[in-house]
Amino acid sequence: MSEEIHKKEHDEKHLEKLTIKELREIAGELPHERAIHDMKKEELIAFIKEARGIKDEIPTKKKKASIKVAMTKQQIKAKIRKLKAMKADAAESNEKKKAGMLRKRINRLKKKSRHAAVA
Q: Are residues 6 and 46 in the same domain?
């Protein structure tokens, strides 16, 4: 009995490390009604575990839904001006890493402002 439990735990951990092709091969051997090739990796793992009778004690990790607060074009432009001032200060004090980071943030905000103008 303990060997059986140990094997299930091993299989459960092992499935996470397999590639999607390997998971599809395993799922293909099991009786199924859905199209296996359309499933994502997490879905394949869940399908195989269900077919083998492995229960998830720990829920699978899901990405947290990020709450995006839409900024107006004016808010974005104001933030860009603020970051440009911070970048100039960083450049004057020879903080190259900080200036580079700020430059990237400014570029991302510029892209957002262009998208906000289109929308």
A: yes
